[in-house]
């Protein structure tokens, strides 16, 4: 990697961000993973037949939600024709609608659907993000891509730390990505580290507070179709997380 490219890598750029707004802007300019850059831009150029008339975002997708969130929801990565098309996490695909419907039921989203940047959706006390910010082929980032992208998530959670009380992790990939981030940030995790599972809950301890972490199956099309995760299951985990975060009935 050239010296100029090294300077632009997430490991160098993310820690210097002072605000989430600055972080989100730099995330959208990241080109650190060649395979992901090629794939996201290929999808944006070819497009799905149903969206042929749309202009795809085709860039890394930043987190979404207020900078003083008490609850973070960590997924996997943007969908090729969802976030990679619309430019917002969990937006424009069935997974996004499933998640937003559950957040709306709990009282943390202003509406039950997530279709585009101009749809009026607002999240209350919740920020949605992912350990990988580019759409990966077959929805499978490599471990190296996960590790390269990790500084963005680490800095995002660090900037949220003054208000963050709870994290919900959607899927095993996000779980494996998040726990090293928390450990590196100084959170004391249980030993042995908890294995991922739906409904798993542990508390991490750090200087100045506690952080509750809950696992939840990802609301992917496959998981919802096979009933691996149902709406009541998702609502239950998010409701527990909202209570732990001190959030309740904030939707207007």
UniProtKB/TrEMBL annotation:
<dbReference type="InterPro" id="IPR044147">
    <property type="entry name" value="UdgB-like"/>
</dbReference>
<dbReference type="InterPro" id="IPR051536">
    <property type="entry name" value="UDG_Type-4/5"/>
</dbReference>
<keyword id="KW-0234">DNA repair</keyword>
<keyword id="KW-0411">Iron-sulfur</keyword>
<keyword id="KW-0004">4Fe-4S</keyword>
<feature type="domain" description="Uracil-DNA glycosylase-like">
    <location>
        <begin position="62"/>
        <end position="238"/>
    </location>
</feature>
<dbReference type="InterPro" id="IPR005122">
    <property type="entry name" value="Uracil-DNA_glycosylase-like"/>
</dbReference>
<keyword id="KW-0408">Iron</keyword>
<keyword id="KW-0227">DNA damage</keyword>
<protein>
    <recommendedName>
        <fullName>Type-5 uracil-DNA glycosylase</fullName>
    </recommendedName>
</protein>
<dbReference type="Pfam" id="PF03167">
    <property type="entry name" value="UDG"/>
</dbReference>
<comment type="similarity">
    <text>Belongs to the uracil-DNA glycosylase (UDG) superfamily. Type 5 (UDGb) family.</text>
</comment>
<dbReference type="InterPro" id="IPR036895">
    <property type="entry name" value="Uracil-DNA_glycosylase-like_sf"/>
</dbReference>
<keyword id="KW-0378">Hydrolase</keyword>
<keyword id="KW-0479">Metal-binding</keyword>
